Structures are given as structure tokens and as C-alpha cells.
Amino acid sequence: MKATAIANANIALVKYWGKRDKKLILPYNGSISMTCDGLFTITTVEFSDKYKKDLVIINDEELKKDEKDVLGHIERIRQMAKIKEKAKIVSESNFPIAAGLASSASGLAALTVAAAKAASLNLNQRELSILARQGSGSACRSIFGGFVEWLVGKKEDGSDSYARQIVNENYWPEFRMIVTILTEEKKKVGSRAGMAQTVETCPYYESWLKTVNQDLDVIREGILKRDFRKVGLQAEYNCLKMHALMMTTKPAIIYWIPATMEIIQNVLLWREKGLECYFTIDAGPQVKIICLEKDIPKIKRKLKNIKGIKKIIVCKPGEDAKLIDKHLF
Ligand code: DP6
Fold first, then answer.
1. Whole-structure pTM value
2. How many CB atoms lie within 10 A of CB 250?
């Protein structure tokens, strides 16, 4: 009853921000992401009588503050499988967690795939996506590789709110996201609490919902046509709309730091001068630069001149979450 899985993080081109059902994690709007090769989590799960309580170790540290309710997710899987054994879970990510780098997406997706297998649940990818969604919304997209859409769904039980692949990782192999790491500090407001606050207090939330379907249509079509400009422009616009919601939430949620703004300004300037790149930012200060493979050396050189960038990680479209043989314990 032991299994290990690897899942890539994903970065949204059309963002998920707000839940219509907090318990089942059902979104108010659909979203589209790229699964990122290079930002991954590996998780081993073992259910056994030898454990007296659930034990979760993430990046060598025992889980204390369970913001994403990892233990609740394990219990959900135990109930589905009708088993009683407690679990040991060891998880490692190759990037800073909880700094707006989609760690919960890869983390909960890897946990879902490993735990479902360890509990002998035989689930297909759609079922895994629905299960991962209940751990963390964005995790439902990390079940699939390439470019992925999380369908908003209508049903109250969430059975029609899952992710599906638009195209796999080989369809547009030149597509890149350069993740800039500006700080490894844990953010003050998590996405879960932040989006709930937005839904409750932001006067512009309705406008977001009115316009997001158009963003989805443009980006889905842009991906299918490999129209880089179309995807980049619309993704940048969607990101700014989400940050406008965050900033006009009460109390205001401002994830940007000076280096965030510096990169934004530079991306706009480089584009004006003919270097085609766009930015997107999630619930944290880190900027992801959307570009094509051919422009990576040039952009890397330019980024060297920006103080405040600690590290960069270049991601291309990554693979589906999958089981692997090598266990972490
Ligand atoms: C800004 O999936 O982390 O990254 O469902 O509460 O776990 P929960 O939230 P989470 O939110 C991600 C928000 C985002 C946008 C996105 O990835 O679509």
C-alpha cells in the first residue's frame, strides 16, 4: 500500500479566482493553464497499520500548519477506498513552496495520484482530476500535461468540474515561461483566503465573471492555432484583471513588490522594441515571462540587469502527472 507519483506545477493563462462551493472546491469561472516542466513535486504515500497517526513531511519538515487541509484530503481518499490505515506521506518539491509558485497544484496532484494508487483506487485521469480539485482547485489541472482547461461545471456535486487537456506537451514545444524568483518568503495572504475575501468584498467581481469566458475562448483558440501574440496579450490582460480584483478587495491584497513592477515595466518596454514577451503573475510577487524558445538567451541577458531577481527557472510544456517506481522512503 505504498506508491509514489510525480506531478508538475501549472501556471494559469486564464486564472481561477473565487469559489462557488468552498467544500467541494468548485470555481466561479473556468481557467486555462500550461503544465510546467521543471517545477515538480514528488510524493510517496504509504497506508499501513504500523502508523498510529497520519504523518506528513514536506521538504524535510513535518507539516504543522495545514492550510490546504492535506490531512483532510488523505481522509477523503481513505473514505473513498474504505480503508482505515493511517498514512505516512513524504513530499519534495524542487522550488520554493507557498511563494505564489503553484506548489499546491503540483503537491496536491502528486498526493492525489500517489494516495489513490496506494489505497488501491483505480481511477482514470478525469476521476483523479475531480479528486485533486477537492484538495486544491488548481491541482486538478496538474493531472494533465501540455495546455489544460479546468471546466467550470454546473452541477452541485462537482462531477462536471474537472480539467481536460487542450493539447499535449508536444503540440507547441517552443512555448516557454520564465519564472523569476524574487523572494522565497512565504506570502502573507494565501490564495484560498484571498479569493474568498475577493468574492465577498470586491465590487468588480461581477465584471470579472462577465468577461472571463471571452478570455477563455481567445486563449483556447490561440493555443490551437499556436498564435503566440493572441495568447500572450490575452494572458497578460487576464492577469492584470485578477490583480485589479485583488487590489480592490477589502482589505487590499497586494502581492507585488518593487521588483515585480520593474519586470512588468521592462517586459512592456522590450515588447515595444520588438522582443515578443508577455507577463503573468499569480498570488505572489514572482513574475512569469511568457516567451518563445528562440528569445530565451536574449531575455536571460536582459534579466541579469534587473536587481532583485534571485533565480530564474525556464519552463516548457510538461507531462501528465504519473506514478514512478522510486519511493522517497
Ligand atoms: C492565482 O488552487 O491554490 O494561482 O483551490 O484554494 O487551493 P485553492 O486555491 P489555488 O489557487 C490558485 C490561484 C491562482 C490562479 C490559478 O492558478 O488559476
1. 0.97
2. 11
